[in-house]
Design brief:
By secondary structure, the chain is of the alpha/beta class. It is built from 24 helices and 36 strands. The chain folds into 4 domains: 95 residues, no CATH class; 225 residues, Rossmann fold (3-Layer(aba) Sandwich), CATH 3.40.50; 240 residues, Dimethylsulfoxide Reductase, domain 2 (3-Layer(aba) Sandwich); 115 residues, Barwin-like endoglucanases (Beta Barrel), CATH 2.40.40.20. It starts with 12 loop residues before the first helix and ends with a strand. Belongs to the prokaryotic molybdopterin-containing oxidoreductase family.
């Protein structure tokens, strides 16, 4: 950081924050109604109470979407408090955590971006000059016009993080598509926490990215398995449901390499070796098959188990193969799965029905003949059939063939879980009902898709899915169904979305899937990719370093704004109204505007209107916020449930599903082509097309495969022998709340947790500052001894900003390698070493 002055105003980031801090801290001291950890205004006895309370929603990506009271005096938010949900009058989800209580320290903190700024020094130097909104918009749009004229329309790109769950100014907003589709820009999609989605949805169909029984249903399970999820910290809004379940007699089993707080509260903790969850699940299934304890009726009636599979193509044997013409029927459009390969080419007619082609799978019936699935009286789970010289086996037999490669005695060497424990876990999973709650642990390696695929396949073997107390999934948060993603002014995107993991290569080569595709400007909103995306040095050097114009809109300074050419001051959540349509509570929630935007900040909605006008489309976004929000939710399907925008505003929140608690896949109704659980994947597809190739045969069934880096004997094992893991701390949500003064008193600096044996072997004492390093980068933090850390692993609380470290940052160390099917950032698939920091 430098104190060099800018030519226009004499401001640097340091002097800006120093001056801003003197003003805003003084303002906050008179505004924030907390005691103990910060100065609070002392209101004299008898002073008239002129406080107004607004309805707010805490909408960071913890997914809690908790309702808050926003207490306002003299146009200042003086405190926040818990606000009841009207959809749940029993108070079961009314809550607020320390983050929710500390919002005033974000709103009035010294790190607010107060006005538009333009970079004048080197990127990353923190040297800007203050400019007006008019100057900022003109500079951005003039550059965009120049770039598109020189490099093509696609050369303007936009991306977001997960810092605002709002529907108008947040990550669920269609307004960005209205504007950026109009100028034919490229959308760069974040690639986080998606491996679970691919592994689960390819078996049960797409009901949403993260689907599981509502957590209030945990208490109805006999056993709750939690795989790699530290709910007490990462999704603490769900923790009380786990505690309630234990009070009701539910047994809690935590499968995690680390003794987390949740593991410490478990009835049984299983410290599995990192990245081996798939092998553990497959071995549990071995026990079920070996003991002939699988749910055969469920397998026969609700899964692909009896389907015959051709050995030559790997496809299901269809009745058309046997000379039977497919059926052609008319069904309601809403009954057709969008992912169904059976319905390729289906057309919706004017009556809102679909012409559907049914080419039924062939099965072996009890009499030994091959029949259509719909005609067989007792489809067999096992057996073979010779189709014109092509051997065919049932999908179940193929699954069993794979499963039998993982007897507990072999799996214990892979997972470091004793064979007798694997047998015990299998018996618990059979003795239902039970729920398997997957977290982000196994998701964070390049074999994460298979870990999720294996887990959901275990539900197929037991039949424990789709009813109270039984289910498998992630269940973090859900997009409410029935909303409208097409509002006034929306046009179709001209170019396909591009994964953020593909962006560095595009920037290095100006190529996308072999074709010319230069990108020269990136607009970032509601996110902090420099801090949260893997391989920071690659991102800074190859992505930002090759941009002509890097624009960031945020309400506070972050690692990402540090590298911006133009910084735009965005409004805080409570300085604008919005509608939350992505929620762990499965509620639509209206968040009121409590105060006017501070300083010169504007909502993202208003910023988009200015950008549209600057690009020559002043009438593109011409409705009021309420009118657009009405278009989002006033749909026939929601109206049929009694949900309208006006009712949401009136009630503040409205539950969006007819029944409570919500149970996905009820009545064994799955959104696959067959309507069954298809643990055998006939047509494997990728999560995101980046022009990659993949091994289709490997993807048909769940398998254990080594991750890319984080295992003993990997290509970098000769240099680095510690697996670097992270935890999602309770004091931040990703990098949000990083500079919150209230929380920093409780959590003051970056740390790295180590097993004492690993530390002592390297001469590291408890409390030493250490340098964690690999070929990609380094990070300095304070070492903390912790016997709950598995030997061979290190754990850091994620998402500290780089300026909060003595050197480096955690994301420098993270690989940008990814599984071609999952196309997911592999946050845990990293090997590192550590040494005492020499302060150089």
């Amino acid at each position: 950081m430098t104190d060099q002055t800018t030519p226009k105003s004499g401001l640097t980031r340091r002097s800006f924050l120093k001056a801003a801090g003197a003003t805003t801290v003084a303002t906050a001291a008179g505004a924030i109604g907390f005691g103990g950890l910060a100065i609070a205004e002392d209101y004299a006895p008898g002073q008239p109470d002129e406080e107004t309370i607004f309805c707010g929603v805490c909408r960071g990506n913890c997914s809690g979407t908790c309702k808050l009271n926003l207490h306002v005096r003299d146009n200042k938010i003086v405190k926040t408090s818990k606000r009841p949900f009207n959809s749940f009058p029993d108070g079961s989800i009314d809550r607020i955590c320390l983050r929710g209580l500390s919002h005033p320290y974000n709103i009035y903190g010294p790190n607010r971006v107060q006005y538009p700024m333009k970079r004048v020094g080197e990127r990353g130097s923190g040297e800007w000059e203050r400019i007006s909104w008019e100057e900022a918009i003109k500079y951005i749009t003039d550059e965009w016009k120049r770039i598109q004229a020189e490099y093509g329309e696609q050369a303007i790109a936009y991306t977001r993080g997960s810092g605002n769950m709002g529907a108008i100014s947040g990550v669920a907003s269609p307004m960005y598509n209205v504007f950026f589709n109009k100028i034919n820009a490229s959308m760069i999609k974040i690639a986080r926490d998606q491996a679970n989605t691919r592994g689960i949805n390819r078996v049960v169909g797409n009901l949403g990215d993260w689907v599981l029984n509502d957590p209030s249903d945990f208490k109805n399970a006999k056993t709750l398995f939690v795989w790699g999820a530290n709910i007490t910290d990462a999704q603490l809004h769900d923790w009380h449901h786990v505690a309630d379940a234990q009070d009701a007699g539910t047994k809690l089993v935590v499968i995690d390499p680390i003794m987390t707080q949740l593991a410490a509260r478990a009835d049984k903790w299983v410290p599995v070796k990192p990245a081996t969850d798939a092998a553990l699940a497959l071995s549990m299934m071995y026990v079920m098959v070996d003991e002939d304890a699988v749910n055969k009726p469920f397998l026969r009636d609700h899964t692909c188990a009896p389907f015959l599979v051709r050995s030559d193509t790997g496809k299901f044997l269809r009745m058309s193969d046997l000379g039977v013409e497919p059926e052609v029927i008319e069904v309601a459009a809403g009954q057709v799965s969008a992912a169904s390969s059976e319905n390729k080419g289906a057309k919706v007619n004017a009556a809102k029905t679909v012409t559907k082609v049914l080419d039924h799978p062939a099965v072996l019936d009890a009499d030994g003949t091959v029949k259509s699935l719909v005609e067989a009286t007792d489809p067999q789970l096992s057996g073979t059939y010779d189709f014109n010289g092509v051997p065919c086996s049932t999908a179940y037999d193929l699954l069993v063939e794979d499963i039998m490669q993982y007897p507990p005695e072999k799996a214990q060497d892979i997972c470091d879980v004793p064979a007798e424990t694997i047998v015990e876990l299998a018996h618990l999973a059979l003795d239902g009902p039970c729920i398997h709650r997957l977290g982000w642990g196994s998701n964070s390696y390049t074999n994460g898709v298979h870990a999720a695929h294996a887990n959901i396949t275990m539900a197929a073997l037991t039949g424990q899915i789709g009813y109270s107390g039984a289910g498998t999934g992630v269940g973090d948060f859900k997009a409410c169904w029935g909303i409208n993603a097409v509002v006034k002014g929306m046009t179709a995107a001209k170019y396909p979305m591009i994964s953020a993991l593909a962006l560095p290569e595009i920037m290095r080569t100006d190529k996308w899937k072999g074709e010319d595709y230069p990108i020269r400007s990136l607009y970032v909103y509601a996110g902090n990719p420099v801090s949260n995306q893997v391989n920071t040095n690659e991102y800074v050097n190859d992505v930002i370093g090759n941009m002509d114009l890097y624009v960031v809109a945020d309400y506070c300074f972050t690692d990402t704004t540090k590298y911006a050419d133009i910084v735009l001051p965005a409004a805080h959540w409570f300085e604008q109204q919005d509608l939350v349509v992505i929620s762990a509570t499965q509620c639509f929630i209206h968040s009121e505007k409590a105060i006017d935007p501070l300083y010169e900040s504007k909502s993202d909605f208003e910023i988009l209107k200015l950008l549209a006008a600057g690009m020559g489309y002043p009438d593109l976004i011409d409705l009021a916020e309420d009118e657009y929000m009405s278009q989002v939710v006033d749909t026939p399907s929601l109206t049929a449930l009694g949900i309208t925008y006006e009712k949401i505003k009136e009630n503040e929140d409205m539950y969006w599903y007819p029944e409570k608690p919500w149970i996905p896949w009820q009545n064994a109704s799955f959104r696959t082509e067959s309507g069954r659980m298809e643990f055998y994947v006939e047509n494997p597809t990728v999560q995101f097309d980046v022009g990659q190739t993949f091994d289709e045969e490997r993807e048909r069934l769940p398998r254990y495969i080594n991750p890319t880096e984080a295992y003993e004997g990997s290509p970098t094992w000769d240099k680095y022998k510690l697996i670097l893991l992270s935890e999602r701390p309770r004091f931040r949500v990703h990098s949000m709340w990083s500079d919150n003064a209230y929380l920093r008193e409780l959590d003051p600096e970056p740390t790295i947790k180590m097993n004492p044996a690993d530390a002592e072997a390297r001469g590291i004492a408890d409390g030493d500052y250490v340098e964690v390093y690999n070929d990609r980068g380094h990070c300095v933090a304070k070492a903390v001894y912790n016997n709950g850390i598995r030997p061979g692993c290190m754990v850091y609380p994620k998402s500290w900003q780089s300026h909060q470290h003595k050197a480096g940052c955690w994301s420098e160390l993270l690989t940008s390698e990814y599984d071609p099917v999952g196309v997911n950032e592999s946050y845990f698939d990293n090997l590192v070493e550590v040494r005492v920091w020499n302060e150089e």
